UniProtKB/TrEMBL annotation:
GO molecular function, one term: 2-aminoethylphosphonate-pyruvate transaminase activity
Taxonomic source organism: Vibrio variabilis
Tagged with keyword Ubl conjugation: no
Annotated EC: 2.6.1.37
Domain of life: Bacteria
Catalytic EC class: transferase
Keywords in alphabetical order: Aminotransferase, Pyridoxal phosphate, Transferase
UniProt protein name: 2-aminoethylphosphonate:pyruvate aminotransferase
Cofactor(s) needed by this chain: pyridoxal 5'-phosphate
Residues that span the membrane, as ranges: none
Length: 113
């Protein structure tokens, strides 16, 4: 509760999470990824992205490459779509999301079309 108060309360934290999510989506789209949901359905909590439509792509390989750089993503278990999820909350700030986008770019071993 002290950390929440120091951050400026619920609305300030919500704004940070929203900024994280917007930064994430913009960065992922710049790398060629597509979101599972339309923008008007996004929440600041977690964002799902379609898996790349490339024959070389394997979630585990992508996961392992990101984990080696200090980031963890989640498989898409909430729909029948081939996707993965990235959390936008916790002690995560926009600079962390920007580092994540760089790590994702480094982890890509396939070419997106």
């Amino acid at each position: 509760m002290i950390e929440l108060e120091q951050e400026g309360g619920i609305s300030a934290r919500h704004q940070r999470y929203q900024t994280n999510q917007t930064t994430l989506v913009q960065g992922m789209r710049s790398l060629g990824f597509r979101t599972l949901l339309n923008d008007d359905l996004h929440s600041p909590i977690i964002t799902s992205f379609y898996s790349p439509e490339h024959s070389d792509y394997q979630f585990k390989e992508f996961y392992d490459r990101l984990k080696a750089q200090g980031f963890v993503i989640y498989p898409g278990k909430v729909s029948n779509a081939d996707c993965f999820r990235i959390g936008n909350i916790g002690d995560v700030h926009p600079a962390d999301i920007e580092r994540l986008i760089g790590a994702i770019k480094n982890a890509m071993y396939w070419e997106l079309s």
